[in-house]
Design a protein that fits this description.
Largest sheet: 4 strands, antiparallel
Number of strands: 7
Radius of gyration: 23 Å
Order of helices and strands: HHEHEEEEEEHH
Strand order of the largest sheet: 1-7-3-4
Helix content: 25-40%
Shape: elongated
Strand content: 15-25%
Distance between the termini: 33 Å
């Protein structure tokens, strides 16, 4: 089984040289690395978001909405490709095509530090088979996770939209670095001193500090 090895939100060096250095003074480099990886995932779990860079994650959702401003009617000029898709929809008894979807993972703050891209989108329809949609035909907004399908793309309501995409903070905001360090310190104290607290650190207070800094990133 492959190991979970995300890019840590806070580096081993920054943690080992900071105010919590005493907590890992007896740790091997690998043990400290594992601690930072675990703290990173704990931060993501607390936020219910992916924060550290991820690659080719597959996300599936059901197409069930239509923006009325994009409804196809006699007043919308269509190029031949769009008209073909419209005619096909009419022949199958469906004229209201879904034009939008939203990816789950997008930056809650500092979008300029986020790197996001779509690898592929596959449409799994309840009728008329499936279709791969070229990423070049989409309008993708990494800061909001909004994806708009080109006119002529056959996406009737009920279609399963399967998106493969990448994202995450290519540059980690400083408050996320600090939150990860607090989370790592809390975990280290619980491992080293789970009962009598002789380390001088309160693990619950450290975790509370981490959660406070993560609050602006938490999914609502």
């Amino acid at each position: 089984m492959p190991s979970d090895s995300p890019t840590p939100l806070a580096s081993v060096a920054s943690f080992s040289e900071g105010p919590f250095a005493n907590l890992v003074s007896g740790f091997s480099t690998q043990a400290t690395t594992n601690l930072m990886l675990q703290a990173t995932r704990a931060c993501e779990s607390a936020c219910d978001r992916r924060l550290t860079p991820f690659t080719n994650v597959v996300e599936t959702q059901r197409a069930d909405s239509l923006d009325v401003e994009d409804a196809l009617d006699s007043y919308v000029p269509l190029d031949p490709t769009s008209q073909l898709g419209f005619s096909r929809a009419q022949s199958l008894g469906s004229t209201l095509m879904v034009r939008h979807c939203w990816l789950r993972e997008h930056p809650p703050r500092y979008p300029e530090m986020w790197a996001g891209s779509i690898t592929s989108i596959n449409l799994l329809r309840s009728f008329s088979g499936q279709q791969a949609v070229a990423a070049s035909t989409l309008q993708y907004e990494p800061d909001t996770g909004h994806v708009r399908f080109q006119l002529g793309t056959f996406v009737p309501p009920g279609t399963t939209i399967q998106v493969t995409y990448s994202g995450g903070y290519s540059t980690v905001p400083a408050d996320l670095v600090q939150a990860c360090q607090y989370m790592a310190a809390s975990m280290a104290v619980k491992q080293l001193d789970p009962v009598d607290g002789r380390s001088g650190h309160d693990p619950d207070a450290l975790r509370a500090d981490a959660l406070e800094m993560l609050a602006p990133y938490t999914r609502r």
